[in-house]
Amino acid sequence: MKHRVALVTAAVGLVAAGAALVNAPASAAAGGCSVKYKVAGEWSGGFQGDVSITNLGDPLTSWTLEFDFPSAGQGVNNGWSADWSQTGAHVTAKSLSWNAKVATGASVSIGFIGKWSGSNPVPTAFKVNGVACTGQSPSPSASPSSSPSASPSSSPSASPSASPSSSPSASPSASPSTDPGGPAPQLHVSGNKIVTAAGKPYRLLGVSRSSGEFACVQGKGMWDSGPVDQASVDAMKSWNIHAVRIPLNEECWLGLNGSPSGAAYQQEVKKYADLLVANGITPILDLHWTSGAYSNGPDWHCKDATATCQKPMPDAQYAPQFWTGVAKTFKGNDAVVFDLFNEPYPEVGSDWNKTLGWQCLRDGGTCTGIPYEVAGMQDLVDAVRATGATNLLMVGGLEWANDMREWLAYKPNDPLNNIAASWHSYSFNACATASCWDSQIAPLAAKVPVVTGEFGADNCGYDYMDQLTKWADKNGVSYLAWTWSPWGCSTGAVLIKDYAGTPEPGIGEGYKAHLLTQNPYA
């Protein structure tokens, strides 16, 4: 950024409806509710629960759903569209900022992935804001799937909309992953899709985890004091994150200009990437900060000769060495993806001449307005492939990877044809509307895999991200939000309050809720 097993039972459910009979002062809001609880899919030891709450009383400004599991072996592992908690058998789901208001007659849908042992009976009583929802009847059953790797047969609710107080009307998203575990899949390109070694389509859905690009040159250690242990990975898994993009610094990897030991940095990167792979999460290694004095452009452009900020293009002096080293380190592990350069903007130095920009992006060398010799994307592809590494590669476009219009014409040659297009999309970019995505990105996604390597908004709301993720889901595009870093969301693009995964209101809550509805294999 600039600045499993087969479903073994039919779904079961119940509806609780009617106005609650409670004594309340005349000034109190009248309560009443209808709650539909459905086991959307069940497998050995686990299940997906979908819950729909309809407000039959006065408008709500916030809500809390409560119920008890009948069996001691039942529990909530993680959930979406609510703040879920459980004490003993008692389950509580509290509204989030974007779906707290529910008008009279309107509904809100939430869900969770649960566990069970012995039996998985349906709860028989529900309360909303302390008011009992009475009157019960069974809901229709869902058909079990015969596929040994099928996802739950019914999808969770649609992701939050710009008008959370109204009843959800969007089409359901793909079901969350029911992957029973194991390491991240080996990946390669097939046509316009990323696929596993077995040929199954797979989307990279997750986050960028910043600090590996800057902490090492700012005296902040390797990861800016953030943990890279199992607990921190478990926090990511609680969001249903399946891919993590890791920005890196070429000088720290190579041990140049007084940066920490290259060997120590390399060891930390490999250790973290291996941990992610072991947990079923795809690591995407991104060359983010590079060397090269750059004096052109506005004052905010990076003009330091060393790798202490973001440059318009990678340098020929060190970037190929960086990728040679990374490729040798991860050679033979195709669960690791290489994002060759973060956000190119070579056209700025040539007074926004896009033809010169695309030529510089692909071919490198002496580029107009860039005083150092540039490593083009072809140079970096060649550096990786010369080691024998077969890893999936990502290559960006112009305008900080937002302009992808000539990407196919300037795609570097790869003997393995194993390259995905890396697109970045922020609310302040030139291409930041569905109409632009339809005209510029969808045609590209029809030809090659497109990975939204970064996306976010210039505020802390979820509206822009909601639009983009829904569009990307419809068009088979992968996405990685910026950033899984607890920096405080004052101007946007910060997802969490802490490395335990506590979401920021709005942006973090919305994205977590959406990820929990997604299956990367769908």
Automatic annotation (TrEMBL):
<dbReference type="InterPro" id="IPR001919">
    <property type="entry name" value="CBD2"/>
</dbReference>
<dbReference type="GO" id="GO:0008810">
    <property type="term" value="F:cellulase activity"/>
</dbReference>
<dbReference type="InterPro" id="IPR012291">
    <property type="entry name" value="CBM2_carb-bd_dom_sf"/>
</dbReference>
<dbReference type="GO" id="GO:0030247">
    <property type="term" value="F:polysaccharide binding"/>
</dbReference>
<keyword id="KW-0136">Cellulose degradation</keyword>
<protein>
    <recommendedName>
        <fullName>Endoglucanase</fullName>
        <ecNumber>3.2.1.4</ecNumber>
    </recommendedName>
</protein>
<dbReference type="InterPro" id="IPR018087">
    <property type="entry name" value="Glyco_hydro_5_CS"/>
</dbReference>
<dbReference type="Pfam" id="PF00150">
    <property type="entry name" value="Cellulase"/>
</dbReference>
<feature type="signal peptide">
    <location>
        <begin position="1"/>
        <end position="28"/>
    </location>
</feature>
<keyword id="KW-0326">Glycosidase</keyword>
<keyword id="KW-0119">Carbohydrate metabolism</keyword>
<dbReference type="InterPro" id="IPR008965">
    <property type="entry name" value="CBM2/CBM3_carb-bd_dom_sf"/>
</dbReference>
<feature type="region of interest" description="Disordered">
    <location>
        <begin position="134"/>
        <end position="189"/>
    </location>
</feature>
<keyword id="KW-0624">Polysaccharide degradation</keyword>
<dbReference type="InterPro" id="IPR001547">
    <property type="entry name" value="Glyco_hydro_5"/>
</dbReference>
<feature type="compositionally biased region" description="Low complexity">
    <location>
        <begin position="137"/>
        <end position="177"/>
    </location>
</feature>
<dbReference type="GO" id="GO:0030245">
    <property type="term" value="P:cellulose catabolic process"/>
</dbReference>
<dbReference type="InterPro" id="IPR017853">
    <property type="entry name" value="GH"/>
</dbReference>
<keyword id="KW-0732">Signal</keyword>
<feature type="domain" description="CBM2">
    <location>
        <begin position="26"/>
        <end position="136"/>
    </location>
</feature>
<keyword id="KW-0378">Hydrolase</keyword>
<dbReference type="Pfam" id="PF00553">
    <property type="entry name" value="CBM_2"/>
</dbReference>
<comment type="similarity">
    <text>Belongs to the glycosyl hydrolase 5 (cellulase A) family.</text>
</comment>
